[in-house]
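Subject: Proline--tRNA ligase

B.,
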Amino acid sequence: MDKVYDKKGLKKKSENLSDWYTNVVLKAELADYAPVRGTMVFRPYGYAIWERVQDVFNKMIKKDGVENAYFPLFIPYSLFKKEKEHIEGFSPELALVTIGGGEELKDPLVVRPTSEMIMYEMYAKWVHSWRDLPLKINQWNNIVRWEKRTYLFLRTLEFLWQEGHCAHSTHKESEEMVLRALDWYRQIYEDYYAIPVILGVKSESEKFAGGAATYSVEALMPDGKALQGGTSHDLGQNFSKVLDIKFQEKSGENKFVWQNSWGLSTRSLGGLFLVHGDDNGLVLPPKVAPIKVAIVPILGKKDNEVLKYCQKVKEALENENSEFPGKVTIFGDLEKSYGFRISETEIKGIPVRVEIGPREVEEKTLTLSFRIPEMTKKLMRLSEVGGKVEGILEEVQRKMFEKAKNFLTENIREAKSYEEFKSIMGSTKGFIKSYWCEGPSCEAKIKEETKATTRLKSLDAKAGEGKCIYCGKPAKFIWYFAQAY
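Prediction pasted inline below.
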């Protein structure tokens, strides 16, 4: 296959999405390959975006009374296998420690693929009475799942995430928590990543191992494939019965708690980069961009005056209480050419660029250029920029969401026949809405023949009278299908 490069050595997104993506992740200094196959290093620029997600999400969950904690990386294998469905679902991806301190371990240690078992072992010690509920704990940690095919951010052996785990006295209260967490993920995607998502419930085959029901937010990538953006699980009483997590009601009766868990990972950042990037590199929404404004001095005979003016502009643009907390950075490295510095701001996806030369110094003005083509340049006086930059950044954020929303809308199609279904999935892809009988054999055949999986049944789905897209038998609900990452 021919390698496609543009003038900056970047491969073109429009011609080879996979190569472009890897190229941009490396060139924008988001991450790099680590010595162990399938692992990666988060470079500071990439990690800064994840830190922003942590800041935003922590505010959301703490308002709801969720507290952060940390539980061990290692889980005794004897504990992990107590829940049968759980161990069966994760067995192919488990990493086991069998030797420690030079001796073979009698009970191997599972390297955390998720934390239900280790956390709930402790919940059983902590929960005794209705007064101990609800128990709402979140942890930010690393996860290890032994993936065969890996892809920077999107699928790695080790990744970062948050996982929330709650215990409640009633199923109704637990279900409400499941949907509340799902809406937090919607907010992260739509309000911060500027990516529209579809919310719904997973099929039996796609649900979390050991859970009663799984809900997810699904986003659409530029190649027409879906990305599972975050999941929230109704665990019922499955784990509480296995680990004996009981509480005494006010009446004195002992009952098992109702539980849920929910997680959002750094995989979501891969979706962010894929959706908005273009042939020139990253395109970051202002609300998560580590650098929101790049100031690029045009240096010449009046270098000192230009650099002093750049500092004044920087101070006018900075706002500690901003909804857009990214830095304002002066790209004034004299060792780099003006063209190189401009390219650097583009590759890194910085939302706004200000170019300043002697004329701007003399006229006390500045011109704002934008990373997205939907915005036109704005000439402003220095005295007015401080009060207007917030509104401008909000406009950039909104336009990015609108563009992604239009793409999603244009790529949701209904298939009335299986032939039409196969035709769409073999060409444009995207989401296909079709009636499905919810039979596992039809689901498996569709996946085998088209590579499409059931993504979800939307939260607002209403029962109807249709025929299964595959077998033709009566079906009550329309489901979303797509090929997926």
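The chain is about 35% helix and 30% strand.

T.
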